[in-house]
Amino acid sequence: MEFAGKYPDVQRINNSYTAAATCNVGFFVSLRIVSSDERMTSILLIFLGGGIGAVARYGLQGTMYRMLGGDFPYGTLVVNVVGCFLIGVLMMGMENRFLLNPSIRVFLTIGILGGFTTFSSFSYETIALLRDGQLLFGLFNVFASIVTCLLATYLGTVIAKLF
Question: Which one, of 98, 127, 62, 157, lies nearest residue 149 by Cα?
Answer without folding.
Answer: 157
